[in-house]
Amino acid sequence: MASLRLFIWLFFNICFYTSGTEAKAPSRPVQPYHYDYSRIQETDQAWKCWKEGYRPPPATSNKIHEQGNGTVAEIERILRFDQSNTVLFLFSSNSDNQNLHTTFTVERNKLVRLSLDNAGLERLELALLGRENDCRLADLSVPRNRLRDLPTGVERLTALRKLDYSYNLLEEFKLDRLSNAAGLKQLLLSHNRLERFVATEQVNLAVLHKLDLSNNRLRALDASYWTMPQLETFHVDNNRHLTMIDGWTRAMFPLVKGFDPTGTNNWNQTWLKSVQ
């Protein structure tokens, strides 16, 4: 009888242990993502238009810097910072962020600089009312993400000095959308999938000095509607099917020294000699 009781006890305990083990199957490890960000908050000052080199005085600002490794939820928490009192926000990551999927919305803010480098961005939006941001954001940099379009309303960012969309998934860029950014100095669009870079009306970017369209898929380019008298650095190499640039003359772009010295485009040599 004692042997029977021992057998029954062992049987139930073995069954219980086995079922408990199956219920606690090992979970998939959570992937950590590296991040490094800086944020300067403006605590007391009223809304004001951006000025060259503007920074809030130390007496009314608070600087935060943090780096580490975090989950998707922690990265999203960082990106949900309070935009209403932030002047500068710079986020970067050196992780492989192929599995990180985020979106970001620019809300009513005091941002002078916004940089989201390798943040897993798949969508960028502007949610601004009236003329809230027309005289503020000067640097919008979102390189190494998965963005396919410019945000609706980018036409309103009239204070832009730098727009960096390099290493994204753009297939088309309409230069007309930046016609209100008269002070734009740098437009960086390298390493996208651009097949079209077009302007349908005259676009006057009087102080633009750097335009980078390299490493795209451009087959045709027309500069007829570009007014860029200060353009000095123009990268258009590694667009292998580009043979010439319509409307390009040395008189229109006197500071540009030449094109594609390494020969990575299939230039029409007659055209090339006429514009060098």
From TrEMBL:
GO cellular component: cytoplasm
Transmembrane segments: none
Residues spanning the signal sequence: 1-23
InterPro entries: Leu-rich_rpt, LRR_dom_sf, LRR_domain-containing
Coiled coil: none
Key words, A-Z: Leucine-rich repeat, Repeat, Signal
Name of the protein: Leucine rich immune protein (Coil-less)
Taxonomic source organism: Anopheles quadriannulatus (Mosquito)
Phylogenetic classification of the source organism: Eukaryota, Metazoa, Ecdysozoa, Arthropoda, Hexapoda
